[in-house]
């Protein structure tokens, strides 16, 4: 008999049917009696003072019910930390990017709302603007925020060991500059909010990763207690990090509803959803890495400049993840990392759980170059530098479980690495990348997850959790965890999630924490309920509750599975004995680097760490420059797979997102005055199914001491690893290092041209 | 310093604002995307076989999305007990009353749905019918249910002591027959349901007294687990007992939604809301009561016949409450009570928490007659027969707390009883009545209430309870209880109630149990949360948690209120120490008469008992027969008033309902073929504000050991007591016993005529 009955089993996700049949409702589908429709007036300048807004004409338009401008906002600025509070959710002083919110209208239909926008008269005073991060950091650049001299939004600095001496003493040092552009999250569901502000407070539905986290800034911005903000679960059509934060759309819909005393729905257009929501940072990375004669990494010295756009957003976290991921992926004692996130007059860039690609992707390219120079197989070099369980990083994070080497070996085996590397026909290449990501991040007093578990009279159970499911399968995951802990089958578990008025607070589906945090809380609450049930069963069986187990719908004494009670019977007996079985539990990250970690990044930064290795095979068309992905293999150490099917889907999703999307296709372009040139799915390159090759997902297990049933996050290390794999495959195919992402046909042609020139120069 | 900071204070109810501003939404106000509208085809016969239903024409009408008939229902019959399951929620064999459901249509608008009804062809075979309970019990009467010979729906029989001998040995025996007609609940909100049946189960909003209790029959009728029925809180415009049960409307809306795969809304017309929902039983009572020379009651012998209409409904409970109330109100050792609830071809009669009026109202009239014969003041006679704390009734129920005598004295004082009784001018009268009702009824495995309490990061708390508020102030009541227990002010308590998918099971707002059961559960859950908080505070204060108290927003050691911590600070410290404060608790009735009590009515029938005395003053116009109410005084023993303002409102409401409504005005009338003649507010007599005199509410306290803070129910004893008070005032004014309710002008004129004839005959 296997250790577990429910977890570790491949099951169809419990949320699949409503999504497939179309019965699942998204925010834009909702309606409330008396609901109004909102539209937003946006800035036609990248940078301008707002001198005056005259809404009087618009107010007189029949059907208009409320108009708001920055004057209706209380002086509150949003930011994840005190020092990054720079964004008034509807600005009143000036606009800082092309498309920023200036005013919003609620009317009885969308046409009238749109018409009203044209009647609002805004006097702007255009200001000089800057669209490039490095330029923004130069002296004399236009100042975007009064109190942020030099346009520095965030600076992260880590300096451990003796980096300069170590590099000096290294056998080889590789130094490069890598760059990557803005990417879009491309959620297929446009951002939409339904808000109803009444005497009891705010009721709001919107796509987001953490309702409980969203309630706080909304309560601050509206000047009401957190408990008067009710953020509800709703089906979500994509997140990817871009829906981590409170959105001006949430605030505007809420404020319009408060003013109009009616429910208000605001649905972003596709263009707004490309331009006026968070985007992924552009970045450059200057990286030096040293190795000794045996290929051991001696030191890493990295400087990252990120284009943060007009506001800080979750910048401190976005600017930090690179150093954490690099530290976790390979062992080396000397590490310097500096990240500067600059303000520019572009839309604010948000959270991406594995960014910038130029940091870790660049490092992976450099490792292959060094391996080549050392005459080593890149796999061998990576195995030599892999971390292990119990390893302590330079900044004193302990790796709690680790099967990194196993992911390297299994991915290489499946991809035919040994047979293919160096043996492929001209124009083809195979490359490898490695990645590590965190699970369960320190987030202060909002960093814990709680859960309730309720036994019902039919003998089934209800799990009440504040976590949301952005599409990754969280609902299904917590159902499996509860079922295993309670000894029930999954169909006996009802999951109810994310209504901030009822569900215990939850840290949100951020930072790959859902399984370890929300799942852990559910496990604890289920254990609490189970223990109460076992007490009743013990009376019925005349046994010691400590000797009893609940499994497969039954309760019995260990070793005596034949003398059992049905759980449903025990649950009903409990009720007949005047005992309502209600469980509660919570889970907090085992991270001692709380709160202070950004300013003083030392200590345990996360509760668990996952590892992955990707191998990609490409064919490069030397005529057109086009890179065709032939195959992707991805092995991921997820600790323990709660649902192997879901983990495989997550591995595939990560491979897709990092490979064809991130490494080969996606980028935003801008006009000289800061207008987004490709804010639509026609001009923005996004992979079609024909761009995606076979993806082989491989699950590797370790057994994490923190995660429920040993689980960690399920697949994201591949989003890191696959960048290096694809980039290295291209490097392998063409013999030149692609230092610019995405590796578009133009980039490849230019690289080939440069290479030709160099060999011509040499000859 | 008073014992309590929050409970016992007069506060405006926390739910008042949304009701007053109109922002509160009722079921009929709701809409869902893609929603359809339903209409119901009803029987034009009081009793008929359904031979065939042809829906084909209606189905072809454009815009019609689903039609259901009894054939779509699974063979499930609803009833509160196994032996009363007689009602298929949409009948397939025959109809049993004029207006019963035959088919229902869901269409894209109401007009089309109504048009479709006309296209449904039903072949009926009319059957003989019976409209009177006593006739229905005669041999040869039409059989309404195959398996219920003699049309006996329910029979309750209690026989304690030696009734016949005691009556024989009595000094005086009074014997009468009283009758009362059907009344309507007259909820101002017509019944309305919104149902959405999808792959996850049923979501339903409807006015009802117990969402958790409603989920079960709906799950049975639909053949799905209880946990797949989600009944939600919604503002409710009146209940009064009539919304205790599952309604055919709920079932039809759910079934239509399942068939159409779209949300369906069904809103009853005013006529349907008068005729096709539950009504209050008509009844006759034959009562014999004996007293000794000193006016002590020796025995009560009562036979009640109730007209139950076509189905059992909650008949067993409705037929039992009279004996419980009579037993509780006065002490006497010998008691025989028989109630027969007969089936008739009228709409089914439902729960009324204090019925039939003819039982207790009749007894009160008889006591006044006996007092007169004994030459005693009716007040004196009542004091002599009052029960007391610790008293054990003939059927072995213990009175746990009691201030009955105090209610008598205070009501009499306030009403000027001593000065007025016997001293009023001709045509005027003053009368007294006494009543007792239960709190916290035994209801089996669904008889408990649970609650969760969650501390929030702002330091306020959320109460999660399954109870609903039908208008009586339950939300406000549990907020006060939680606030007191947690040491917070009421504005720091958020109340979230009644969503069966999330809230702990609750026995419902039935049987005056909300305060003792739901309130008790909330108190227990709050105590659980508070104890966790005190643990954290104890660490902070370096104190023993047992020595700490939480009060007025602070935590401090008993006796050292100056060395305190703000609760909000402790709550945040708990979070910063990785502790989510989540509390859970439950409460069950302290009643040993569970489940079996109807068949074998012995033992503790309720957890607590409240008592009340009413005094009414009337003026009778001997020309027109009109009774004008001049004044009402009502003193109620509520144990402890959680919110005195709310208790006074409940006392006034009860006085209104029993006095002008029940005793003087309300009755239904029928055509010979069973059609309701006055199913509207024009023809049905309902008091206007001009019919209502001053009402003086008086709160009397006892201290119940079961209820939270000593509380019991808040006002309903007056619904019992006021019937006797008004009827006795009329008796006092005209010198004849009014044996027929309501005491309409015709009744008074007939009584006066009879009296005249009798005195003529005598002279």
Features:
homodimer; 763 residues; Aldehyde Oxidoreductase, domain 4; Aldehyde Oxidoreductase, domain 3; 3 domains; seven-stranded mixed sheet; 20 helices; 30% helix
Question: Which percent bin holds the helix content of chain A?
Answer: 25-40%
Going by CATH, what is the homologous superfamily of the largest domain in chain A?
A: Aldehyde oxidase/xanthine dehydrogenase, molybdopterin binding domain
Uncertain stretches of 5 or more adjacent residues of chain A:
none
Cα Rg of chain A: 27 Å
CATH topology of the largest domain in chain A: Aldehyde Oxidoreductase, domain 4
Strand content of chain A: 15-25%
- The CATH first-level class of the largest domain in chain A comes to Alpha Beta
Q: Provide mean pLDDT of chain A, rounded.
A: 95
* Total discrete domains of chain A: 3
Largest interface: A-B, 55 and 55 residues
Compute the number of strand runs of chain A. Answer: 26
**How many distinct helices of chain A?**
20
Structural shape of chain A: globular
CATH architecture of the largest domain in chain A: 2-Layer Sandwich
Structural class of chain A: alpha+beta
Biggest sheet details of chain A: 7 strands, mixed
Question: Within the largest sheet of chain A, what's the order of strands?
Answer: 3-5-1-12-9-10-11
């Amino acid at each position: 008999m296997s250790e577990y009955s429910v977890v570790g089993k491949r099951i169809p996700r419990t949320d699949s049917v409503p999504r497939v049949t179309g019965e699942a409702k998204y925010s834009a589908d909702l309606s409330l009696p008396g609901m109004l429709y909102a539209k937003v007036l946006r800035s036609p300048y990248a940078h301008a003072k707002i001198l005056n807004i005259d809404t009087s004409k618009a107010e007189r338009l029949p059907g208009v019910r409320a108009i708001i401008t920055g004057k209706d906002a209380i002086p509150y600025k949003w930011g994840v930390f005190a020092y990054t509070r720079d964004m008034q959710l509807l600005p009143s002083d000036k606009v800082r990017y092309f498309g920023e919110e200036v005013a919003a209208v609620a009317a009885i239909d969308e046409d009238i709302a749109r018409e009203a926008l044209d009647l609002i008269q805004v006097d702007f005073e255009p200001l000089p603007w800057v669209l490039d991060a490095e330029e923004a950091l130069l002296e004399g650049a236009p100042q975007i925020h009064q109190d942020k001299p030099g346009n520095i939004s965030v600076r992260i600095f880590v300096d451990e060991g003796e980096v300069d001496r170590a590099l000096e003493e290294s056998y080889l040092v590789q130094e490069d500059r890598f760059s990557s552009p803005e990417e879009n999250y491309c959620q297929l569901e446009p951002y939409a909010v339904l808000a109803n502000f009444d005497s009891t407070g705010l009721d709001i539905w919107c796509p987001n990763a953490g309702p409980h986290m969203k309630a706080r800034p909304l309560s601050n911005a509206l000047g009401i207690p957190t408990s008067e903000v009710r953020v509800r679960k709703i089906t979500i059509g994509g997140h990817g990090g871009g829906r981590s934060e409170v959105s001006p759309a949430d605030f505007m819909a809420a404020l319009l509803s408060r003013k109009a005393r009616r429910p208000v729905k605001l649905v972003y257009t596709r263009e707004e959803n490309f331009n006026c929501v968070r985007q992924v940072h552009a970045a450059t990375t200057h990286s030096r890495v040293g190795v000794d004669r045996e290929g051991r990494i001696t030191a890493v010295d990295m400087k990252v400049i990120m284009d943060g756009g007009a506001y800080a957003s979750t910048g401190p976290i976005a600017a930090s993840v690179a150093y954490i991921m690099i530290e976790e992926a390979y062992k080396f004692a000397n590490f310097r990392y500096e990240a500067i996130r600059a303000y520019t007059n572009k839309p604010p860039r948000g959270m991406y759980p594995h960014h910038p690609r130029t940091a870790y992707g660049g490092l992976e390219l450099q490792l292959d170059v060094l391996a080549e120079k050392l005459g080593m197989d890149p796999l061998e070099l990576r195995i030599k530098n892999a971390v292990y369980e119990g390893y302590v990083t330079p900044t004193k994070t302990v790796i709690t479980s680790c099967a990194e080497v196993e992911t390297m070996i299994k991915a290489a085996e499946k991809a035919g690495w040994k047979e293919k590397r160096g043996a492929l026909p001209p124009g083809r290449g195979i490359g490898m990348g490695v990645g590590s990501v965190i699970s369960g991040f320190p987030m202060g007093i909002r960093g814990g997850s709680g859960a309730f578990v309720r036994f019902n009279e039919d003998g089934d159970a209800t799990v009440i959790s504040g976590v949301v499911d952005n599409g990754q399968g969280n609902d299904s995951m917590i159902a499996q965890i509860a079922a295993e802990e309670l000894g029930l089958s999954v169909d006996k578990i009802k999951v109810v999630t994310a209504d901030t008025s009822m569900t215990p607070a939850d840290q949100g589906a951020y930072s790959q924490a859902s399984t370890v945090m929300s799942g852990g809380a559910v496990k604890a609450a289920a254990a609490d309920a189970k223990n109460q049930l076992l007490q009743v069963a013990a009376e019925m069986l005349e046994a010691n509750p400590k000797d009893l187990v609940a499994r497969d719908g039954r309760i019995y004494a260990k070793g005596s599975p034949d003398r059992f009670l049905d759980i449903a019977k025990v649950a009903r007996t409990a009720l007949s004995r005047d005992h309502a079985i209600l469980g509660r539990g919570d889970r907090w990250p085992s991270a001692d680097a709380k709160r202070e970690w950004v300013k003083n990044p030392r200590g345990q930064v996360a509760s668990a760490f996952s590892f992955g290795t990707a191998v990609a095979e490409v064919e490069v068309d030397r005529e057109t420059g086009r890179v065709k992905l032939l195959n992707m293999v991805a092995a991921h150490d997820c600790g323990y797979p709660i649902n192997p099917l879901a983990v495989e889907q997550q591995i595939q999703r990560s491979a897709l997102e990092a490979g064809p999307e991130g490494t080969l296709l996606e980028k935003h372009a801008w006009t000289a005055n800061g207008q987004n040139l490709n804010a639509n799915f026609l001009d923005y390159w996004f992979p079609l199914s024909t761009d995606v090759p076979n993806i082989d997902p491989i699950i590797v297990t370790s057994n994490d001491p923190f995660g429920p049933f040993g689980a960690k996050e399920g697949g994201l290390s591949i989003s890191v690893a696959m960048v290096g794999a694809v980039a290295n495959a291209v490097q392998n195919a063409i013999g030149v290092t692609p230092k610019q992402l995405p590796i578009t046909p133009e980039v490849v042609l230019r690289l080939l041209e440069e290479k030709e020139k160099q060999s011509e120069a040499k000859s």
